[in-house]
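re: that chain from earlier
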Amino acid sequence: MEKGRYQRLFDKIKKEAITVDYSPAEKELPVGTSKFGGKPYLPKDFVWPYYEETDFEGINKNRPLSFIAQINLEEIAGYDKDNQLPHSGMLYFFYELCTMKWGFDPKDKGCARVFFVDTDRDLHTAAFPEDMEEYCILPEFKMQFSNKTDLPYYEEISEYVTDLEWD
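^ sequence. v structure.
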């Protein structure tokens, strides 16, 4: 396959990815800011998600999911070159850190949750549930966004070109 053909193929299948870099939050971040860890900024009526599962010690318990991150979609709208996301609202990511289920098994449903909330709602700094283990609370990091061009894996590229060699 000649070099120009690869370039045309790559131009056709490339996507603009949004990358995230993290750095410790040196002071409290403004309400509504994208961040990793810390206390989430949630609507007052938000119900903290829980997950019931047996942990590694054989204890079955309904545990609060750990807050992982929140992304303010207005902050990343300029980086969404392929226009794949809403340009307003907040995405919240929660995960059960005690059992750390992968989610491959259907019985793991609920061990990870993503919520979308319209940012027109009043947000406040939420308290962690009283029954949350201290080690399940993540430190707060601020997020910085940027773009990078991304290509599919070799196996996916080979779907477009049948005479492609690994080298």
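The radius of gyration is 20 Å.
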